[in-house]
Design a protein that fits this description.
- By secondary structure, this protein is α/β, with parallel strands linked by helices.
- The protein has 3 domains: 3-119, Rossmann fold (3-Layer(aba) Sandwich); 138-150 and 153-196, no CATH class; 199-357, Rossmann fold.
- Helix content is 54%, strand content 12%.
- The protein contains 16 helices and 8 strands.
- It has helices at residues 13-20, 35-44, 51-65, 82-95, 113-118, 122-150, 158-172, 176-191, 210-214, 222-228, 239-246, 257-264, 276-288, 303-307, 309-319, 334-356, and strands at residues 3-6, 26-28, 70-74, 101-105, 202-208, 231-235, 293-299, 323-328.
- It is globular, with a radius of gyration of 20 Å.
- The chain starts with a strand and ends with a helix.
């Protein structure tokens, strides 16, 4: 059977696998990168390339070596170099004697090349897309419950264990009723986790470049670290919301580009590509909603995210909300990540105590 490789998009890999079924192909993906994948990508990529480029390049190299014939990567517009990734990665694969062909997904008319190539029958295509959409919704439901519970769990690690169990159950669900049943069971399953009733968790917004927000290996499992420090995290890259923005779904969507521009307008007057607009808008939103702090993550050298960091610092000063900036590359130390997050959490707790006096 033909194999199609998707780059890791966190737990959304389960939904991507469901969507691949509509093309009559086998999906090759994972929920995160691995040390082997990053090593392959670093060895094959230009030194100046950003971490997501190296991670996805290594992913496609490994997929090709294991027999995958095709890959798919999201295109981009604006100043983000993601718009060139497909062509550059295709050249790298050719130089290594690998024949995997990479499709760009998006910004190429109503029917992207991927769909034109496989030309799926309408019925199976719509059914698989429905399953994928349901799985995206289920993933986001369980992640939000996990963010809430992890900060107050009585036994450390129990929330993560349950999350992984729920993900396995979702992966086995093949029909819409099975997916719906899995999603409907989530509140009760997470509600059974014993919690510390005296705990008042921090509220921390996690925003920045999409790949780093979703690839647990590349971001050093930042969600779990913050949760273990007593912070309820809100990861602002949600694929369901992203798809609604791209396809203009949902009447009066508060997260539409138009509304985000309106929110960011006092600080950002021109588009700069990538998810920089979202970073600015959601920083303002976190300040307005009383978050304790914000963690902004980006790959070292990421032009859109680096260009708006002075803006984020200004918002931090103007709106009186602490901001931690973190840049990642293949040399980033896990101990360093842990130490800085621990120090940031201590600052937020001390700040809360002072504000109560």
């Amino acid at each position: 059977m033909t194999t199609l490789a998707f780059q890791p998009w966190g737990n959304y890999a389960l939904a991507l696998a469901a969507s691949a079924e509509s093309f009559g192909v086998k999906c090759w993906t994972s929920t995160s990168s691995t040390p082997e994948i990053l090593r392959l990508g670093v060895e094959a990529s230009p030194e100046f390339a950003c971490l997501p480029f190296k991670g996805s390049t290594g992913h496609f190299i490994k997929a090709a070596r294991e027999g995958a014939e095709y890959g798919v990567i999201v295109n981009s517009i604006g100043t983000c170099r993601l718009r060139y990734y497909r062509a550059v990665q295709q050249k790298i694969l050719g130089e290594h004697g690998l024949e995997l062909f990479i499709f760009g997904l998006g910004y190429d008319g109503f029917k992207p090349p991927l769909i034109r190539h496989f030309d799926p029958a309408l019925g199976p295509f719509l059914k698989s897309i429905a399953r994928a959409a349901r799985k995206i919704g289920a993933v986001e439901t369980m992640e939000k419950l996990a963010w809430e519970k992890r900060a107050v769990e009585r036994r450390p690690g129990e929330t993560t264990r349950l999350l992984n169990e729920c993900l396995r159950d979702l992966d086995k669900a093949r029909t819409v009723p099975e997916i719906r049943a899995c999603r409907e069971s989530l509140p009760a399953r997470f509600g059974a986790i014993p919690v510390r009733t005296d705990a008042t968790p921090l509220k921390v917004g996690l925003l920045g470049e999409a790949t780093l927000l979703r690839d647990r290996f590349l971001n050093h499992n930042i969600e779990e670290i913050l949760g273990g420090l007593g912070a309820e995290v809100n990861n602002f890259f949600l694929m369901g919301m992203e798809l609604r923005k791209i396809f203009h779904l949902g009447r009066g969507n508060p997260h539409s580009p138009k509304n985000l521009f309106k929110l960011a307008r006092p600080y950002l007057k021109n588009p700069v590509g990538g998810h920089a607009l979202e970073s600015v808008a959601y920083t303002i939103l976190c300040a307005d909603k009383g978050y304790d702090g914000i963690v902004h993550v980006c790959p070292a050298g990421c032009m859109p995210e680096i260009s708006i960091r002075p803006i984020l610092r200004r918002i931090s000063r103007d709106r009186d909300i602490p901001l931690l900036e973190y840049s990642f590359d293949e040399q980033t130390s896990h101990v360093g990540v842990l130490t800085r997050l621990e120090a940031f959490a201590d600052i937020l707790y001390d700040r809360r105590k002072k504000n109560r006096r």
